[in-house]
Amino acid sequence: MKYLIYFLFVSLTFNVLAQDDKDQSQTGLSFGETYKTLADLVVKYNDGSEIKSRTAKAGLKYKYIQTVTNRVFIKFLRITKDTETTKADTYVNENNWDVTYWVDINDIRDFHKVKTSSLVSGTLLAPIKIRPSIEETPWDLSTDISLGQYLGYRILISQTNPYYITFPILTLGTSLLSIDSSNTTPEANSTTLGLTWSTGIILELDGFTLGFILGKDYAPGQAGKNWIYNEKVWFSVGFGVNLTSKNKDL
Predict the structure, then answer these.
(1) No. of helices (H) and no. of strands (E), the chain
(2) Helix (H, G, I), strand (E, B) or coil at 169
(3) pLDDT-based confidence at 6, cuts 50/70/90?
(4) What is the pLDDT of residue 11?
(5) Which end of the chain has less Cβ packing within 10 Å, N or C?
(6) What Å distances lie between residue 134 and 139, 183, 184, 187, 234, CA to CA?
(7) The pLDDT value given to residue 2
């Protein structure tokens, strides 16, 4: 008897896994997994005998339930706060989130065909710079802010959340460089506009940004010749700040 129970348990387990694999191959979703709308998604629901629709704004979390006759059923997680726009009943909001919604299987396939990588451009900000020590001059934490245009490659690193990694292939911009008695010979005090190039890696984790950047500054004229950090590598690390403008796909 115990072997029969064991056999039934194993058979049931394999059937569940097989069904999950089938659903995942059809929709790209797995049963019970939590996903997030990376863009606005139109969802449908049954209101008596009538089929109605609402818009789920980007950023809402939902769980995949099942697929029945080309309908993909999903359930949104609790919504606790709406914007003025989403308070309308035409949107999924805190008053109607617990309805069982569904999406046509072809629509959900298209929705989850999010570009996993793309060439992007934008504006890169280096808020602070760490300048390594040079001879007898110790390392320096500089506020010489750099701002420039970058060209990079952006890759989606999560199937359930808007997590990206961007490689700024090339960044060219300008910096306001502070030249003073601690970093120039002969002594001088001035602020000059210099040219900057940089490269690095930027992680975007659902609105939180973490970046590691390195580059070089080029100061013009005689001030640049006397400045000890001219054409020397610097590093910049950013946490929780918007290091880039909105990326634009090329």
Answers:
(1) 3, 15
(2) strand
(3) very low
(4) 47
(5) N
(6) 7, 10, 12, 17, 12
(7) 42
Q: In the structure, what pLDDT confidence band is assigned to residue 148 with cuts at 50, 70 and 90?
A: confident
User: Which domain-ending residue is among 58, 87, 111?
Assistant: 111
Range of the domain at 121: 117-249
In terms of domains, do 56 and 126 share one?
no
Q: Which two tokens stand for residue 196?
A: 């900057």
With a pLDDT cut of 90, the percent of the chain lying above it is: 16
Length of the chain: 250
- CA separation (Å) from 237 to 50, 54, 55, 93? 55, 42, 38, 38
Per the structure, how many domains does the chain have?
Answer: 2
Instruction: Kindly give the residue spans of alpha helices, DSSP state H, lying in 28-124.
Output: 105-111
* 186: preceding bond cis by omega (within 30 degrees): yes
Decide: 103 and 111 in contact? Cβ < 8 Å.
Answer: yes
Cα–Cα distance, 86 to 89 (Å, whole number): 8
Are 181 and 227 members of one domain?
A: yes
